[in-house]
Design brief:
The complex is a heterodimer of chains A (519) and B (339).
Chain A: H1 7-16, E1 22-31, E2 34-44, E3 49-53, H2 60-67, E4 75-80, E5 83-84, H3 90-95, E6 98-101, H4 113-117, E7 124-125, E8 128-129, H5 131-144, H6 160-173, E9 178-182, H7 190-205, E10 209-213, H8 217-223, E11 226-231, E12 234-240, H9 246-254, E13 274-283, E14 286-294, E15 298-303, H10 309-316, E16 324-331, E17 334-337, H11 341-346, E18 349-352, H12 356-360, H13 367-372, H14 376-379, H15 387-400, H16 417-429, E19 435-439, H17 447-462, E20 466-470, H18 474-480, E21 483-488, E22 491-497, H19 503-510
Parallel strand pairs in A: 3-10, 3-11, 6-9, 9-10, 15-20, 15-21, 18-19, 19-20
Antiparallel strand pairs in A: 1-2, 1-4, 4-5, 7-8, 11-12, 13-14, 13-16, 16-17, 21-22
Helix pairs in contact in A: 5-6, 9-19, 15-16
Chain B: H1 3-52, H2 59-84, H3 93-110, H4 113-137, H5 142-161, E1 166-167, H6 173-179, E2 181-182, E3 185-186, H7 187-205, H8 207-217, H9 219-224, H10 229-255, E4 257-258, H11 266-276, H12 288-307, H13 312-338
Helix pairs in contact in B: 1-12, 1-13, 2-7, 2-8, 2-10, 2-11, 2-12, 3-4, 3-5, 3-10, 4-5, 4-10, 6-10, 7-8, 8-10, 11-12, 11-13, 12-13
Classes of the chains: A alpha/beta (519), B mainly alpha (339).
Chain lengths: 519, 339
């Protein structure tokens, strides 16, 4: 090491050997009222691959972003080789040697592989881009992770998997001391995954500290030396990998104290004919999906974030284009093909999207206007808006969903998340939908609003609607669904009954810990 | 942590906090300015002009202000639909106003008034549909599309007319329209008020206007509500085209002449009125009545500059400055609302 040249530095270097490369001390991170990370301490040593696992929403990504200096913690401190890291200063974190491989790709599609790998630290000579050095560094980084790709190829022409590798090469090119990867294998094939895991193991031996976030349990066992399990933002356990079994790990991930509220469960719901049916659905992140929902039935789509659940429902109802397959809605013996989203709406499908702020609501408009939007044809036969009728209509629906405060003239953007979600549901209730598709209906919603939304969903099913719910919230899925379909890698990997299914069974299927032949 | 770094970190927050508070104040102020400012500013400006500017409060001057404001105001009222739909602006009004003016006078001279109006109406529909299809169906950028249709339209007009000036019949219907007054009010001003009221009702009281506002507020949510969104965009550009056509008629009637260069700067003047009125360039927020206030503000300001002897260059600079100020306030206000 070059530091040994100076006596003081050598003393420091001697001490850093025992100091973890990256350490988070009593990290707390709150977003508004929710506690995403609750007093978690974590340390990763040189040469170690440290796994970070947990359910959706356990706080993994938030903790990782705090450690990478992207987010400032509400309380607590991050240390890089024993030195305080200025919170929320991405540049300082990079300079300190923390490299983060994002879950969402952050490459510039129009630029070449070499340009992307050195983005932000492009080498220059007298202010002019030094293409040769750029290509050399990029080439070395790619060689290091054992990937061969044309350095001059624009990113937009690469496969998603190859982009992921370029992203990793970019992190490596910065010569980091800590490499943080968030679900890097989500888009990779098994062979590519194996290659990546082998590469990471090799890199760890070059004195790198690796923090590896995944909900894929087999990968964790292949790769990691130690594993930290998070649940509901809290640290459950941190131990050597040898002290876990796949089953015990799943148990740690889901074993919450909270008991399922089965009191409200529907008992022996009356199921009718198949109303919503999809056959051989193909779309980006959707692989040959068949799905059926009967009248009066609540079907839950479970799985991990990024498994393709949203993509499946959107392709199903035509909100996104599909490359193959067919969706039909059958009502009163009449079978209709759903060729476009507008056809879906006309056939009586209501869709409550995952992103209510960006896709569900016109935030600058009043609650009343939002509710009127999908009900225009019903509310005014002429082209003139019937404002009094709209107001009455909106008021009664606001009452049905128990909007708080019940002020329908207020802008939608001024309500809390839970009440915004109620507005999104209310606007579709007005159409008395025969099919209702809800994507994460209670995410970011407080407990009271959540119970009310559950009540509404049950009432809809009781009235004979075919209900399809996507949820990352396992208890919710188990409480609501009559049937649960578990999705992984854009496929349905298992169908479980709503009654009598344990959280661990769903989790094991979703995480690929238990391999079940796809139905 | 060493004592020095501890001191440094504890010394930083107060300064940062003051900066933050200043920012918060600026945001709150801009929120207020964007939502309420125009009412107060317009009233204050008119009051200032009445008290301090010699010759402002005379009937001939006020008539002149309104005669100049009418065509811009009508154009701006129509263009408000495009801005509220979240498509920034319609630059092609420059070509549309000149085309409508030339068509009105030239075709009336050659064939008659009604064919002239029918022909102009066809041209307006063509503009609305072409701009609307490019932007609404093919998702092309509205600024570039309408800049291009301006080039196409003006180019065509100059090529066909050779840049010559058309004069209306000295006792024809256009001349009559341009000179008729009801009491002290010129007919053009009454038309301006009527168009503003009608377009305001279309925006607030009809299904179409409702969808334009919803689309401007959130495109994806509006699409997911089952709305035929391309049609909404085509409609918004058609409203703008109709406004530009009527604005062109009024402009031609005012002087009983028409020339391809007569509408220079109408795009930015109309935009200035819309944004100064408080309609957001981010879409979804605003009204035709606000545009009316914006037109009054810009027109009175321009008139003050004329009366105090500030030249055209200065006026142009002031309008530019006003737009920058208004869009900055708009952006800050939006950020405040988002947080």
């Amino acid at each position: 090491m070059s530091e040994t040249a100076q006596p003081t530095a050598s003393a420091e270097a001697g001490s850093t050997a025992s100091v973890p490369v990256v350490e988070g001390r009593n990290i707390i991170k709150r977003f508004g009222g929710t506690q995403a990370v609750d007093d978690v301490s974590i340390a990763v040593a040189r040469g170690e691959v440290h796994g970070l696992v947990g359910e959706n929403g356990a706080g993994k990504s938030t903790l990782m972003r705090v450690l990478a200096g992207v987010l400032a913690p509400t309380e607590g401190e991050v240390l890089i080789e024993g030195r305080h890291l200025e919170p929320g200063d991405t540049r300082a974190a990079l300079d300190a040697g923390v490299s983060l491989v994002h879950q969402e790709l952050s490459l510039v599609p129009e630029m070449t592989v070499a340009e992307n790998i050195l983005l932000g630290s492009t080498p220059t000579r007298a202010g002019v881009i030094d293409g040769r050095t750029q290509r050399r560094i990029a080439g070395e980084a790619l060689e290091e992770i054992g990937v061969s790709v044309d350095l001059d190829e624009p990113i937009s022409r690469l496969s998603v998997a190859m982009r992921q590798f370029v992203e990793i090469a970019r992190a490596i090119a910065r010569r980091p001391r800590v490499l943080i990867l968030d679900e890097p294998t989500a888009t990779l094939t098994p062979a590519e995954t194996d290659h990546l895991l082998a590469t990471l193991k090799r890199l760890a031996r070059t004195d790198l500290a690796i923090l590896y976030i995944s909900h894929r349990i087999p990968e964790i066992f292949t790769l990691c030396d130690r594993v930290t399990v998070l649940r509901d933002g809290k640290l459950v356990i941190c131990d050597e990998i040898g002290n876990y079994t796949p089953d015990s790990m799943v148990q740690y991930m889901v074993g919450r104290e909270l008991q399922l509220d089965m009191a409200n469960r529907r008992i022996d719901p009356e199921l009718g004919e198949v109303v919503l049916s999809a056959r051989g659905l193909q779309a980006p992140s959707v692989n040959d999906v068949d799905l059926e929902v009967r009248a009066g039935e609540i079907v839950g789509l479970g799985g991990l974030v990024g498994a393709g659940r949203t993509e499946i429902v959107r392709a199903m109802i035509g909100a996104d284009p599909r490359s193959d397959g067919e969706t039909t809605v059958t009502l009163d013996g009449r079978r209709r093909r759903i060729g476009s989203y507008r056809a879906a709406v006309n056939a009586g499908i209501a869709y409550i999207p995952e992103e209510r702020r960006s896709d569900g609501l016109a935030l600058t408009m009043s609650v009343s206007d939002n509710i009127a939007l999908p009900n225009r044809s019903k509310l005014s036969r002429t082209f003139i808006l019937q404002r009094r009728r709209i107001a009455e209509f909106a008021r009664s629906l606001a009452e049905t969903v128990n909007l708080r405060p019940p002020e329908i003239k207020r802008e939608a953007g001024q309500f809390s998340g839970g009440n915004q979600q109620k507005v999104v549901i209310a606007k579709w209730l007005g159409r008395r939908p025969d099919v209702i598709v809800l994507d994460e209906p209670t995410r970011g919603v407080d407990v009271g609003a959540k119970a009310e939304i559950h009540r509404l969903i049950r009432e809809l099913a009781n009235d004979g609607a075919a209900v399809l719910v996507v949820s990352s919230d396992l208890p919710e899925l188990l409480e609501l669904s009559d049937t649960i379909h578990v999705v992984r890698d854009g496929r349905i990997v298992g169908v479980l009954p709503g009654v009598g299914t344990e959280e661990t069974e769903v989790m094991a299927l979703a995480a690929g810990q238990r391999e079940v032949d796809a139905a | 942590m060493s004592p020095e770094t501890a001191a440094a970190t504890s010394a930083r927050p107060p300064a940062a906090r003051i900066e933050e508070e200043l920012e918060v104040t600026a945001f709150k102020l801009s929120e207020w300015m964007a939502s309420q400012g125009i009412f107060i500013f317009t009233a204050a400006l008119v009051l200032f002009a009445v008290v301090f500017i010699d010759g402002f409060a005379s009937l001939p001057n006020l008539t002149d202000v309104f005669n100049r404001a009418a065509p811009i105001g009508i154009v701006a009222a129509g263009m408000t639909f495009v801005v509220i739909s979240g498509n920034y602006l319609d630059l092609s009004v420059v070509a549309q106003v000149a085309t409508a003016a030339v068509v009105l006078i030239a075709v009336t001279n050659a064939v008659g008034l009604l064919p002239a109006i029918a022909f102009a109406l066809l041209i307006a529909l063509a503009y609305g549909i072409v701009n609307g299809i490019a932007v609404g169906v093919f998702k092309a950028n509205a600024v570039i599309v309408t800049l291009s249709t301006t080039f196409i339209g003006l180019g065509l007009l100059r090529w066909l007319t050779g840049g010559s000036i058309y004069f209306g019949d000295s006792d024809g219907p256009i001349r009559t329209f341009g000179t008729t007054r009801i009491g002290p009010l010129p007919l053009s001003m009454i038309l301006f008020v009527v168009v503003t009221i009608v377009l305001s009702l279309v925006l607030t009281r009809t299904n179409f206007g409702f969808m334009v506002r919803a689309y401007g507020s959130n495109r994806e949510a509006t699409r997911l509500a089952g709305v035929n969104t391309p049609l909404v965009v085509i409609g918004a550009f058609t409203m703008s085209a109709l406004g530009a056509m009527l604005g062109g008629f009024v402009l031609a009637a005012f002087s009983n002449t028409a020339v391809s260069a007569m509408s220079d700067g109408y795009d930015f003047r109309a935009l200035a009125a819309i944004i100064v009125g408080g309609t957001s360039v981010f879409g979804g927020r605003g009204s035709v009545m606000r545009t009316l206030l914006g037109v009054i503000f810009v027109s009175v300001l321009t008139n003050i500059m004329v009366l105090t002897g500030l030249g055209f260059g200065f006026q142009q600079m002031a309008i530019g400055l006003l737009i920058v100020l208004a869009v900055t306030v708009d952006a800050l206000a939006r950020k405040t609302r988002a947080s």
